Amino acid sequence: MEKKRKITQQEYENIKENIRQTQKTLKHYINQTETTRKSIKKRLAKLEVNPDQKKEFKLKVALEQLKITEKSAINKLVEKIVEYEQELIAAENYLNIENPIAVLKPNYKNKKEKIPFSLKKYFQITNLKNYGYIFLAALIATIAFDYFFSPSRILPPGIGALGRIFAQFIFPPLTIDNINNSNLLYYIFFIVLNIPLIIFSWKTLGASFTLKSLMYMIGQILFHIIINGIGSYHGIPYLNSNDFYFLQNLSTIKDQTILDLWIFFFGLIGAILTGIAYGILYKVGSCPGGTDFINNYIARKKEKPIGNISILVNSIILLGTWAMSYGIKSNNPNPSFGLYYFSAPLFASFMVIFIAGLVANKIFPRYRNTTLFIISEKPNLVSERLKAKGIHNQCAWKVDWTFDDNIRDDSILIMITIPLVFFREIKETVLLADPGAIIRSQSAYKIGEMPRDKK
């Protein structure tokens, strides 16, 4: 085991002095370079009055050389300051300094970062747009459930199906008031069933992702109350789901075959609306909750798409909850279990799972692989923050020029491949580390690696 080098108080003071002197040199060099640049530009301005191509060419070359020299010199001085800072951190830790002055911190999360105004404004505008989209998704999903799924006895995808069954056990669909109360209770049960998954998501996927999903769930309750009412408030007249029927009032249809066709048609419309709502959520870096919390965690952990796991899980939940629904009281006695179980609402519910997934994937293919090319002047900081987000598979190259043909001899290109669902989060992480970073994305067909011999 390597023995720690002893650090004295005098060495600590020397390191601080070295940092001060290097910072002073850097400031002096920047001022001197700026003075030289202004002088050259002033001479170039004079040549506009009395043109001299030879002198103009020499001055422009001198200006370009000054730019290259300045970058190189400033880079070296900054690297020197960073080295001293690292020594300072080690010294402060060794000497147990009560009020450390080191600028660099091993854990950047504990450091309040200075975000450029332009970047701060970008995040503010983006967040406001995202909140608007989340509430739009909540409204669309509420319309899908209240006007299409509920009248046709179709179960919503995922653990929402469990919430639906529990709500109907408490408020069986015997009266209009019961149906409305059952629909409201469904949204409440959906949040309650999500509580363990919300805690899991908060710890593994982050606060921002989880809060957006919770906002969507609460938005559904609010829109249901606004449209359909609660207590003495009876909702929007003529538009609430008790007074208004899209296309057809299913309770008036007596022919079972025609009723089954309408159930599938209602399921199709509800599935498309649900898919649109989910697609909007995925686009703003959120999810509808339930099993999607686990799906997103697995996708991040594996750093690649998870295939059709969510469809399989949702199908298993549906089969179980539909069997439970046989015990719900109704105005018409249920037929035998076999006839009830293998009926139109069950198959329409399966259709909803598949079509909602297809529509959402069309709007935002969240598990499609995408490769990001990040050009940064702070590659170490960017790399560390990507690792903190769970992105460990990174490749890096030195950059000679950028897409706009500018020389960038001090930059590094970092390449990572991620599921598209994490693009927004990773983009914000990179920009917080380096506001001047350039990010380009490209679709990736497949992630793979050459087989390796087992050691």
Automatic annotation (TrEMBL):
User: What InterPro entries does this protein's entry cite?
Assistant: UPF0750_membrane, YitT
GO cellular component terms, A-Z: plasma membrane
Topology class, membrane:
Multi-pass membrane protein
Q: Where in the cell is it found?
A: Cell membrane
Record flagged with keyword Transmembrane helix: yes
UniProt main location, coarse: membrane
- The reply to whether Zinc-finger figures as a keyword in the UniProt entry is no
> Which keywords annotate this record?
Cell membrane, Coiled coil, Membrane, Transmembrane, Transmembrane helix
The domain of life for this entry's organism is: Bacteria
From the UniProt record, list the coiled-coil ranges.
5-50
Regions crossing the membrane: 130-149, 184-202, 214-236, 261-285, 306-328, 340-360
Instruction: Spell out the PANTHER family in the cross-references.
Output: UPF0750 MEMBRANE PROTEIN YITT, UPF0750 MEMBRANE PROTEIN YITT-RELATED
Q: What is this protein called?
A: YitT family protein
Origin species, per record, is: Spiroplasma syrphidicola EA-1
